[in-house]
Amino acid sequence: EVQLVESGGGLVQPGGSLRLSCAASGFTFSTFWMSWVRQAPGKGLEWVANINQDGREKNYVDSVKGRFTISRDNAKNSLHLQMNSLRAEDTAVYYCARAAVLASFDHWGQGTLVTVSS
Amino acid sequence: EIVLTQSPGTLSLSPGERATLSCRASQRVSSSYLAWYQQKPGQAPRLLIYGASSRATGIPDRFSGSGSGTDFTLTISRLEPEDFAVYYCQHYGNSPPGWTFGQGTKVEIK
Predict the structure, then answer these.
(1) Residue A66 pairs with which residues in a beta bridge?
(2) DSSP SS3 for A30
(3) A108 interaction partners in chain B (CB closer than 8 Å)
(4) pLDDT of residue B95 exceeding 90
């Protein structure tokens, strides 16, 4: 069974940093693109970043470029999102998601809440 | 940048009725990379449709997707109680590479 379990969320002050992790199991992690998608409270879904199988190709939504860094450790079946210079508008539930057939996200974690507030 | 606009914002229907949800792209997109998701309160999204019309694993056949170019539709033929939720369309583009979601359509019980 495919499982994605996020961790690392919490309350952080504006300008602070946080590192999210996603533990993957039940599939060959190293063969899939992976993404982070976020959802602000009461709002819709927003794709944040993605990374290819070997970690060499990364893409970001414009609003997080230069502040967030996606990475992966295929030996540990884990995905990460380093978030720096956090802003109030980064407050959201952050999901990790597996990109599968025709770039659809076929499996999602349960999400981890990041709150940026003083 | 492609913008996906979903309509209506809210759809009020009764169980057993047919639901028709629209997703319009701001420019022509590849139907290969058009997907639909269902999200219930407090839960992660669930993939329903990929490639505009292919059902994901385990999705009942009352869900169907269609469309091409700029206009796409998700149809639920007969609403079951568990289908009342928010639905999002999504597109992947490669210039620049990334994913875009529509703002969602809420299907609520009338």
Answers:
(1) none
(2) helix
(3) 44-46
(4) no
The CA R_g of chain B, rounded to the nearest whole Å, is: 13
Chain centroid to Cα B82, Å, comes to 16
Q: What is the mean pLDDT of chain A?
A: 97
For residue A72, give Cα distances in angstroms to A25, A31, A63, A82.
14, 12, 21, 11
d(CA B80, CA A27): 32
Structure tokens at B85: 């939720």
CB B104 within 8 A of CB B58: no
Q: How close does chain B come to A45, measured CA to CA in Å? A: 6
Beta carbons of B1 and B100 less than 8 angstroms apart: yes
| pLDDT tens track for A71-87 | 999 999 999 999 999 99
